[in-house]
Amino acid sequence: MEQSTALAARVDHWARVRPLLVDGLLAGLIWLVFGLLSVLVGGLTGLVVASATILPLAVRRRWPTAVLAWSVAIFVIQLGVLPIPLPGNIAQALVIFTVAAHVASLPVRLCALGTALAGSLAAGFRWSTEPEYTRNALVIAAFLAIFAGLIWLIGNVVRGRETNTRALREAYAKLAESQRQRERFLAQRERVAAAREIHDIVAHSLTVVIVQADGAEYAAEHAQPWDRTDARTVLATIARTARTALSEVRDVIDVLRDPEAADDPAGSSVGLADLGQLVAAVRAAGLPVEVHADPAVFEETPAAVGFAVLRVVREALTNVLKHAGAQATARVVVEREPAAVRVHVEDDGVGRDDGVAPAGPGHGLAGMRERLRALDGVVLAGPRPSGGFGVEATIPVAARSARR
Fold first, then answer.
1. What's the pLDDT tens digit per position in 243-278?
2. Where residue 97 falls among pLDDT bands split at 50, 70, 90?
């Protein structure tokens, strides 16, 4: 059954893309059958009239109105020269069907119907015979009119089906284009999210590396004597930070290659230990950090919330390292509330002169806000009245679905 349906669909497609060829073959076939039979009925005159009626069917769908006018003219001539119908008159029924099925103008279609009815009446009186001439004429006219009307109605039904099919094809094309646009949008959003993640990872790691390298350079130049233990500690911190950054960047790339990995519960969990490692790296860079974190934040909330907390703390501490000054200290508080998680990161450094954090999509606090927006969270940031800078993030626990 499926093979038959597929074959019919292929044949229909082939016929649609070659209308002139199909109509030419149809006209030739009708002429071979009904045109030649007209010789038996009307002789040579019947053959000429039938040929003039049938052969224009080869262009019936290209010029339906012109073929209709030609068919009417030939039929009038036939009524004048022949007192009998011809087998070739079947072509005129096909012309009526063509106009009804392929002409969009309602007046033209109604004209075709009116012409067919008038022709039916004229043919009835022309082809009627005695002894009951009038009765026979009306019977013939009624039969031809009913036949022509049915052909006209079938053509209109086909035209409606073609119109609906065309509308469905256009709607499908629009749907396909909308789907492609959605896929492009999702791909763009994935790239933006990856760029934001990589920015945060690289910015934090390079900040730690730069602080360590600057400290080591200063110590190498001014400290007497050079302490190998301190040098080894600095280099170990730099290496550890670089390896961690490389691993996290690879994780982001893996998620881009396999988006389903981002939804894997086994690979998408963070805990208090991750926060501890982050703070330890910042402390190793020379920034004293005080931490108060509720373990329930990571144990009793979705993984997406835990990741968001970690990202907020990392971005805030990175900004402290870059902008707070050499003598600054930081304080991190992560609290679990009934309906949300709150993150406070404060420092007592000098901060920026203008008190404004860097802006721009995917950078600094703007990237943090974008990330939390996916979880219905908000971020407030600005200078503290007592000095320094503060960041406060609120993340609903019952957040809508978000990406890692």
1. 776 766 766 666 556 555 444 443 456 778 888 888
2. very high
Q: Which amino acid is at 111?
A: C
Contact 345, 388 (CB under 8 A): no
Give the residue among 380, 378, 296 at the shortest CA–CA distance from 334: 296
Across residues 304-331, what is the average pLDDT? 83
Strands 289-293 and 330-336: parallel
Q: How far is 395 from 404, CA to CA, in rounded Å?
A: 15
If phi > 0 it is left, if psi is from -120 to 50 it is alpha, else beta; for residue 345 that is: beta
Identify the structural domains of the chain with CATH numbers, from first to last: 14-179 (no CATH), 290-404 (3.30.565.10)
Q: Locate tokens 């119907």: which residue? A: 113
- pLDDT at residue 8 above 70? no
Instruction: Give dist(CA 16, CA 18) in Å, integer.
Output: 6
Burial of 191 per CB tally in 10 Å (0-12, 13-18, 19+): exposed
Q: Give residue 269's pLDDT.
A: 67
Predicted local confidence at residue 362, as pLDDT:
41
59 has pLDDT over 60: yes
Residue with tokens 């035209």: 159
Sorted by sequence, the CB contacts under 8 Å of residue 92 that are 6+ apart come out as: 53, 71, 75, 116, 119
